[in-house]
Amino acid sequence: MEIPEHDNYRVSERLSQFDDNELVRLAKLQLPYVTAAYEVLFHRYHRQLVNVCYRYLGSLEEAEETVNDTMLNVFNNITRFEQRASFKTWIYKIAHNLSITRLRKKKLEYINIDETKDILTEDEAADDNESQQKMNTWLDSLSIEDRTIVVFRVVGCLEFSEIAEIVEQKLSAVKMRFKRALEKHAS
Question: Which of 2, 40, 143, 179 is the most exposed place for a label (fewest CB within 10 A)?
Answer without folding.
Answer: 2
